[in-house]
Design brief:
alpha+beta, ten-stranded mixed sheet, globular
């Protein structure tokens, strides 16, 4: 990340995210969970609320009961980040079973045809309206082909249905195909190597009750971890009160700007110690943020920090 410095004035308020008291850390935390096959994503939410004794949590991108892998869980105050978590790109490893024998080169060619913009109608069981939607497949790589079984990795726009993608690939092959297994290996910036299992959360809570905070701080990350899924600006002290009241960020309130912001990007508005104060959509590019002397830079969507 490269920063452009607009002003050397820095605020002296706010707390460093890693220094929050433990209960505040939990209420402002996220869990990168390795969901097992079996439970629904909503059942996992219920378990986590019971384990932590909290009232609210939510997941960023539902996984079907049979699907395993990265499920980002936002806790209490962090649920304000749902617009960002839900819109983050996803990556999966899938096992596709083709219903007839098809030459390997035809399978590879068919998969390549689905890279780019595709049209999908959500399956009947989906909890969304069944109308055609445009989604993007960023890459689709074959890992292994063994007879009629094909293992592949796919990176895609949020809201892409891999089961439907496989069904469409089967139709393109003229043989039919269905999904046998699916695992999400990335959600936004969070990969499976950072994910923890439910028993690790249970162990961390048990350790916390014995006075050891270290495990829970490893299992639950500060909400600022999601900054990797966004662009960022650092704001001046004079702009903080307005931002905490939900006002848009004017260019005069900028201290530092990430160099590659484009209009429409999600932007985190940070205090000088890295605490996320709010986030919203960029109204102009970082280049214009640096050169403009008046006007608005970011439209505030959600305020994260308390006044």
């Amino acid at each position: 990340m490269r920063w452009l410095v607009k002003s050397h004035e820095m605020a002296i308020t706010d707390k460093y995210p890693g220094a929050r008291p433990i209960m505040e850390h939990i209420r402002n935390g996220i869990i990168i969970l390795d969901k097992p096959p079996g439970p629904t994503s909503h059942q996992v939410d219920t378990w986590i609320k019971q384990i932590l004794g909290i009232n609210k949590c939510s997941h960023g991108g539902t996984l079907d009961p049979r699907v395993s892998g990265v499920l980002v869980i936002a806790l209490e105050n962090s649920t304000k980040l749902m617009p960002v978590l839900l819109s983050s790109p996803k990556e999966y490893v899938a096992l596709m079973h083709v219903h007839k024998d098809v030459p390997e080169h035809e399978i590879r060619n068919a998969l390549n045809e689905f890279v780019g913009k595709i049209r999908q109608i959500p399956p009947q069981k989906a909890a969304v309206a069944r109308r055609e939607r445009l989604r993007e497949i960023y890459f689709l790589e074959v890992i292994e082909i063994a007879g009629r079984d094909v293992i592949f990795r796919v990176g895609c726009e949020a809201g892409t249905y891999i089961r439907k993608l496989i069904d469409d690939i089967g139709k393109r092959l003229g043989a039919g195909a269905h999904m046998q297994e699916l695992r999400r290996v990335r959600s936004g910036p969070f990969t499976e190597d950072r994910a923890v299992r439910l028993h690790e959360l249970v162990d961390a809570v048990a350790a916390l009750k014995e006075g050891d905070e270290s495990k829970i701080r490893k299992v639950i990350l500060p909400l600022e971890a999601v900054i990797d899924a966004m662009k960022s600006v650092v704001i001046k002290s004079t702009a903080i009160p307005n931002i905490l009241n939900g006002a848009p960020l004017a260019v005069g309130g900028l201290a530092r700007v990430q160099s590659d912001i484009e209009k429409g990007d999600w932007v985190a508005m940070l205090g000088p110690t890295g605490e996320m104060l709010a986030f919203g959509k960029a109204l102009i590019s970082s280049e214009k943020m640096m050169t403009a002397t008046r006007g608005l830079a970011v439209k505030t969507d959600r305020v994260i920090a308390r006044k």
